[in-house]
Amino acid sequence: MDNIDEIQENFKFIVTETQTQVNRIHNFVKSPTREVYEKALNRESYINNLKTVIENKCYAYIHTHGDLDTRSLNRIRAVLSITANLERICDVCINILEQMDHLVERRILRNSEYAPMFQVIEESLDQVLQALEEAGLSKALHICRSEYILDALYRTSFERLTALLDAGRENAGNCITAVFIYRYLERIGDMLLNVGEAVLFAALGQRIKIEQFDSLQQTLENSGYTGAIENINFQAIWGSRSGCRIGKVENAGGGHMPEHGSLYKEGAPKKILREKENLEKWNALFPGSVPRIFGHHEDVDRASLLVEFLRGCGFDDLIILRDGETVTEAFRVLEKAVRHIWEKTLVPGQIAVDFMHQLQHRCDEVRQVHPDFAQRSDMAVGKARVQSIQSLIEQCTGYEKSLHAPFSVLIHGDFNTNNIIYDDQEHVVRFIDLYRSKQYDYVQDVSVFLVSNFRRPIFDANLRDRLNRGIAEFYSWALQFAKEKEDGCMQARMAFALARSFFTSIRFELNRTFAGAMFMRAAFLLESLSSHGQSGAAWETFTFPPELLYYTA
Questions:
Q1: Domain boundary among 291, 308, 325
Q2: Given 308, 337, 371, which residue is the final one in a domain?
Q3: Which domain CATH number covers 347?
Q4: How many angstroms separate the CA atoms of 54 and 84, rounded?
Q5: How large is the C-alpha radius of gyration of the chain?
Q6: Cβ 21 vs Cβ 93: under 8 Å
Q7: Do residues 381 and 485 share a domain?
Q8: Which residues form the domain of 345?
């Protein structure tokens, strides 16, 4: 039976063999000989076999040890990743060997250029065994950062060789071959980066890229955290559709850290800066309603935030899992909080709405998942005709321009149920993920909330009834708010907003039947709006059947 010692032994062999192969290629570039050439080629099969043996033993070990703890499993996964990259490094070594055959003049390769590159590679490989054994972050980071150094060294060589080509002072084929050789050495840096990140995974228990780790470290320092980075537990939180990486950060040792930990969010600078500004705005207007900011860091192409981790239960889970009394109380608290926000930030005066523009912006994404829905063409049965979806969208885009909200409020902008946190100890709601928050029509938040409940792929009749009751409760409350504010065309704007939310939500749903239910609702609303617009009737007279808000399992 395979055991962990056998895996470790073979892993040491492939690390050692990779070190030896790199050293062989280094010597061959310095002084090519037939003996080194043949030795390197002969060892290629042995290295490939070692990789296969390690993979087989790792999978066998996982299969026969179903009770593996997370740390052990992560270590095996790291071994698999490192092994695959070591084998790729050895393949690249053979590529360099073969390119050397094409050199006309070896003098074009300068020892002052390739020797530092080999030195970086060899020093990094020397760190691998100990880094994985100790789960050492410093050694893992050293391996990762070799990629930056190799990139810089390659750039210097590339600029020299292209300058020679431009000047016509060297044989073109010779220059290009030299570029290939340096490029292969630079590519080894990419594989070493993967090796280092695999060690980070074994140490932290989470996949994290080196630039994200650096950003996390800098953000923690900016927040005032004084402990060692090794004392941080980082737990990735998956499921974000915004392109941002999100994780919970907790203190496992010395250093200051909030009691409930922090939430780390990393992504494009524009998004992160916008969220930071919105969090600051909300905390100034409604203290305690959104997470506090503990730290912020920004680079050229990435930025990050460290914010308060809010205690409580997301509304998405609350509606499904909690008892009826708690859910009723949570809705009461939510509606009171939202009303307070809207009342305080209400600005009279008509504003244009752009729900159809938002829909069109996401059409390509919908088309990729459900092309038949997004590209429905004109159809006719006898005298009955159905317009294409694109035609309906274009018509409704024109009609929407004649429709205005009578006032604006500060909206969340992404009012999904998983962005609303209810704390049943303090009986308060708080909000997260405010990147899209702005002064706009309150109908957008209402429609997003309603459809975020509808689109949950839950088909148990009792649980579905809970979702439907939540939808009915919030929609009834929103209608009452509109009546109080004398918002006569609320239902028309709601139809545009719901059409947008139903249509764009199908890009997240692979269940064709359920996606079809959302598509048909969007199509019905677009057809109703188009017919009303063609009739010339006032938007205040438009209504839609509330039954389309509910799904029956």
A1: 308
A2: 308
A3: 3.90.1200.10
A4: 10
A5: 30
A6: yes
A7: yes
A8: 313-549
Q: What DSSP line would sit under 232-251, residue for residue?
A: EEEEE----SSS-EEEEEEE
DSSP run (H or E) holding 266: strand 262-267
Give the rounded percent of residues in the chain with a pLDDT score beyond 70.
88
The pTM of this model reads 0.71
Same domain, 201 and 217: no
Q: Which of 397, 425, 428, 429 is nearest to 496 (CA)?
A: 397
Q: If we measure between CA atoms, which residue out of 255, 232, 235 comes closest to residue 245? A: 235
Condensed to tens digits (0 to 9), the pLDDT of residues 382-412 reads: 666 778 888 999 999 999 999 999 999 999 9
Chain center to CA of 386: 38
Tell me the Ramachandran region of residue 486: left when phi exceeds 0, alpha when psi lies from -120 to 50, beta otherwise. left
403 and 518 assigned to the same domain: yes
Strands 313-314 and 347-352: unpaired
Q: What is the C-alpha separation between 184 and 84, in angstroms, rounded? A: 17
Q: What is the pLDDT averaged over residues 177-201? A: 93
3-state per-residue secondary structure call for 16-76: HHHHHHHHHHHHHHHCCCHHHHHHHHHHHHHHHHHHHHHHHHHHHHHHHCCCCCHHHHHHH
Residues 275 and 377 in one domain: no
Pairing of strands 262-267, 245-251: antiparallel
Q: What is the CATH number of the domain that holds 292?
A: 3.30.200.20
pLDDT of residue 234: 55
Q: How many domains does the chain have?
A: 3
Distance, in Å, from the CA atom of 90 to the CA atom of 23, rounded to the nearest integer, reads 11
Residue 258 predicted with pLDDT over 70 = no
pLDDT digits (tens, 9 = 90+) for 302-359: 788 888 888 889 999 999 988 889 999 999 999 999 999 999 999 999 999 999 999 9
CB 359 within 8 A of CB 393: yes
| Confidence (pLDDT) at 315 | 93
For residue range 478-511, what is the model confidence (pLDDT) as tens digits? 999 999 999 999 999 999 999 999 999 999 898 9
Three-state secondary-structure class, residue 434? coil
